[in-house]
Protein 1
Amino acid sequence: MNHPRPSDSRAGSHVNAMMKGSTVTVHVMGRFDFNCHPGFRDACEMFGEAQDYVVDLSGTEYLDSSALGMLLVLRDQVGSANVRIVNCRPAVRRILEIANFGSLFVLT
Amino acid sequence: MNRQFLPEAVAVSPAIAGPGRRPVVLVVDDEPINRALIKGLLQDSFEVVDASGGAEAVERCQNELVDLVVMDIQMPGMNGFEATRRIKGDADERFLPVIMMTASNEDRLLGEGLVRGADDFLLKPISRVLLEAKVGALLRMAEVFRVLRDQNRELTVRRAEAERDYQIAKGVFNRVAKRGRFDLPDLLMHTVSLDSFNGDVVLTATAGSTLRMLVGDFAGHGLSAAVGALPASDVFYTMSEQGASLQEVARELNGKLHRMFPRDLFLSVCLVDIDLAGERLLVWNGGLPDGLVFGRDGAVSHRLASRHPPMGILPASQVDTTLVAVPFPAGARFAIFTDGLAESRAPDGDMFGMERIEQALSGPVVERDWSRALWTAHDAFRGPLDAEDDVTFVGLTHTPELVAALAARQLPPRNG
């Protein structure tokens, strides 16, 4: 995997989350990489009582191995059946497919 | 933590105005009446000591704890300018504020005082309000300065510690991560820099006419990669020496990494047995880009796609160790690489991509190091790879020379 490059990450990525019912939807905009770590963790922990998580990657341009790691940590915390990864762009979907995340998450 | 390698231990700096201690102000004037006057103005709030000349002031600052100096300029012997210069020099990194006093209101003299290192000035006769305000402000500034300097020192030490840990991890990783035989004919291995600490691992082992390889890429790099490379290498060599099958190695490696690794550390890896006598490849690919097999005609004959999550994610009980077998006749070529190559980006954001890689490697082989066509294509696309890229490429051609080299390895050493 490529090193996270500060010049790229400064190009801007941010994470936000909202809760509807018992479902938390996390959006990652821009590059989903090491620099998103605190933002992603906070977004996931913001709603303590959540049942289901939807990680919406419609605004994600790229993800690296740290992003895969963050998704795995989330899966570990809430159970694989309760995490859905949705709206991947083709480049992002390819990365998830190479890592066979379809066998670990609900990928739609 | 052994601190002997550190450039500088954390120094305990003298507190300028710690709790429970009144700041010490040194008043320097050759006139006893002036010293007494200023002392009287300050002694309610500060500890006040005095000196009757420049030389004495310098000495007191060397030998006693002084937080701020109020200095007359015109004194017999060492004047205020010279005393200030020496006091500032002795204070070194510490910020010891000096306020200069003068009876003269000549701009020239005042300007000179500031230039020569005084932090502020006061005109005689001294106003109580101004004196208190200036002393208070400068002491607050000195306190901020002290806190910043302490934090900066601590950061410097932490950074030195981190750098040392990094160098140790890098040393361990580089000894462990590229192991085995890379001197075989028609085995190509390229990393952007063998010394770079990128988390890429290449291990090779031989058994009969079979060359076994592990090409992998740890999530993250640095310490986590070094920590992971040790068990991975250990399992790979121990089991291969014991004659374990590739499936057994895959299962054990996965189990061990899963037991050892935190959830966000994993190894994207391709395990492959290149069985030259059997003219086939056995492959387990979890998380690396497609391995490519080229037939004798130069065209891609098989793409060995990742069929599993990277190692370390699933518990041993859930790991699928099904291998893919593809023919690998004489003249065929095999290429496997980490994702840095396909993900390499041109300035406009376009990725190099698998299609370009396949295209560059396809076709008749015109030189023994056929990966050069790939680097040429990449350089044309983006310019040469540099140390920021994490790229590992391994290529192999089924040639009589490679077969002979592996066979030679099996023979007992000849005498004479």
Note: Residues 1-11 of chain A have pLDDT under 50 and may be disordered.
Protein 2
Amino acid sequence: MSMIQMFEKPLGMRDTFPAIYEKLENVRKTGRNYLRAHGYEFIKTPTVEYYDTIGKASAIYDASLFKLVDSQGNTLVLRPDMTTPIARVATSKLLKEKIPLRLAYFANVFRAQETEGGRPAEFDQMGIELIGDASVYADAEVILTAAGLMKEFSVPSFKLTIGHAGILQSILNSYTDTDAQAEELRILLVQKNFVGFEEAVLAFELPTMKTQSLLQFIEEASNFLSLSQIEKYVTKNDALLYMKELEVLLTEAGLTDEIAFDFTLASHMNYYTGMLFEVFAAGSGFPIGNGGRYDGLLHSFGQTVGATGFGLRVDRLLEVLPKEFEQESATLVLFEQGAYTKALTKANALRAQGQRVTLQAKASLTNEAAFTAGFSEVVVVGQED
Amino acid sequence: MSVLTIAMPKGRIFEEAYELLIQAGFNLPAEMDMSRKLMLEIPEENIRFILAKPMDVPVYVEHGVADIGIAGKDVLLEQGRTVHELLDLKISTCYIASAGLPNTTMNEIAPRIATKYPEIATKYYKGIGEQVEIIELNGSIELAPMIGLADRIVDIVSTGRTLKENGLVEYEHITDVSSRLIANPVSYRLKGERITDLVRRLKPIVNERVDV
């Protein structure tokens, strides 16, 4: 270990400088207004939670949790996501007051520190949870809200990919001979290892019809523009009817170009029971966010009501925001010796008009050019004028 | 249409993969000036190649600065990065195996394994119920058992000649390796059509080559 230098921050931690801070604040404000306008109420939970409850129930891999120990010897985690703490609050308290719940959050979450760059250990997430409504309308609302939020931020090119855990499971089950085979294939899909999927299918030595169907499925099922394309793989079942209903609702709401269906979409957490989706945008190499129906998580907290929601990674969202989102003007009032009162009056007058005004004594500046560079307007107030 | 960036490993794999792309009907110049350039623009196809160390290809692809790339399965297994593995190109095929001096058993208390692939080696021995100590080396792994640094090595084997020449024998076949076409998850969505088209055109060629 090398000695820690005075300027260093812990691995994976970042400072937020004024320019980024404002951008973040803008995103927070825009998002908050949008979500509140859609009936969501904001909520805050503790930064630290128990590992045995939140840590274990969370969708985040165990190795990615930021762990600590409290003074009683309990293992704690810095919250890895907001969905799990919200499930805790909802099941223990809020659901007793009102069903369904529409909750929203904007909060920093944490991941285990990683040595490679580009993987912050702390970042902001914004999202919603709709708890206590198991209907297709709730899922449609969540997808529409995610898309609406991306539009509200004027993200130029984004895409939502929607899948269904139940449909995938029924396809895997019906074209394999054992549950173990189906599970092996599901794990390969979680890893997005299409090559491994094909190899495994061939290695199972299934009847030709099953093998052919699975190979064709893996070739085309990750990019369906319409639901009808999946029908040849599944016998009519509730999940398929559900997705059809969902597609109709989304189409009627005007969301068609931005969505695609991917029935190979699988999550490593088996608490995703129904519809699940991912959000992508040009400009970030990583997904912006994801969501889905997670009734299974509520089960682990002892409730059987449905729950659905999504979360966006604000740090990645910032990468894809168009430039005009961040503009702001600022005025500098520089005063010379003896002109303080006059300058103050001037500054306050400008502030009353809603401008951002910095008041600064000229004599204190060592490098005037560098100081004034960040302002859109500079007013110098001297004694004479 | 935005440019498709392809990360390629330098050297022999580049040439083989380049040949595959030409066979798949991509309009690429037959002679490539392979001097010291790290980036090659192909305006005719709206493609840009970036040339990287084989170990680094998944890094470029995972971070999304390259949309797709060609990487060895060994590197993918070792690094475990979040990329889509789309197609087995079936070029530069070899395998990963453990090897050591003939007729030796591993140290019972603390068996030592020298390797370039600490992840793969750890996972393999864990899988067969052995707890081992890993010594990471960067090359000439065969030296380790010869001079007593390790009981076994875990390394890439293509013909087995290097092992033989150094008096080592192969013990366990761990996994097969070949070059894979990988994609960034976001590019896979936003440039999905171009990427699926590429896979569709490459697939028959790859399979045909192997059957011959």
Note: Chain A has three domains: 8-157+282-327, 165-264, 329-381.
